[in-house]
Amino acid sequence: MTVWTKRMTHSYSAFAGAVPAIGDGGGAILDASWRRCGDYALDPSRPGLTDLLTSVELRRSCEEAGPLLRFADPELDRLHGIVGGLEYAVLLADPAGVVLTRRTAMATERGCRRWHLWPGAIWSEQNEGTNGIGTCLAEGRAVTVHMNQHWRVGLRYLTCTAVPVHDALGRLAGALDASCIRPDSDGRESALIRMAITDSARRIESRCFMDLYRGHTIVTMGDGEGSSAPMLALDDDRRVVGATHAARLRLGLPPGDPLSFCLTESARSAEAPGFRTAEKAVIQAALTTSRGNVTVAARGLGISRSTLHRKIRALALADAES
């Protein structure tokens, strides 16, 4: 019997035939995760709880997280204030799936200890199979794993929703998770929980980004989707020196790479559709700084006044003073 067949058999026996389709609540994400679990050769019926790091190993993981923990702490408090009343624990994990810190109420403390929703617990997908933190990190996107959608049968009484958190250089820095030990059976809360977590992940990323580029001009590229807000950091010469994960995706830029380019260069602006949006944001920021004075804005951008006028018309920006 393959591990895949074994998992489906366990699901059937545990729920008397009420086996949810793999795609329910997560579609292709959960389907792909279950298939990876088969490749990992994980035994879905394995007893015991997830592994825990030693205190020394956990301290090292927290140190490696850098400023992420410092900026995440107040946001974890705020998020738990929103979802804690629904008996959710809030956890922040690093890219390896190690829980670095968490927030929980006294009423759920015992359950969190029982399930190892605890700092030092290793919730990677390779370690625990399909779960909120591990599958979110494996996919790099938000996921909800509801009860029997977990790979391990022993986790079938949990509901976990996790979203990715990115650092100031656009790299995956970890996952923000809300797990409930007494979830509603139909999972109706999950959509609302995901909205709250997504907002918190954006706030954490924004704080990291604005701290790293303190003193730079920060411009946004419109509304973002998911847990990353599209923002750019400009130096005094109006060159782009920083971009968040969402901004890098729009501009076709890889995460982690140092940046230094001018969006007002027409050749560069044609490289990707996102450059037009970014160029518009940069020019708007220059006009705002110059209080609408095109001559001053053009000087700050390093282009001629006539070129800036042409770009203002092409980008359909508001009229500015000459």
TrEMBL record:
Domain GAF: 70-186
Protein name: Sigma-54-dependent Fis family transcriptional regulator
Gene3D superfamilies: 3.30.450.40, Homeodomain-like
An example molecular function term from Gene Ontology annotations: sequence-specific DNA binding
Domain DNA binding HTH: 276-314
Origin: domain of life: Bacteria
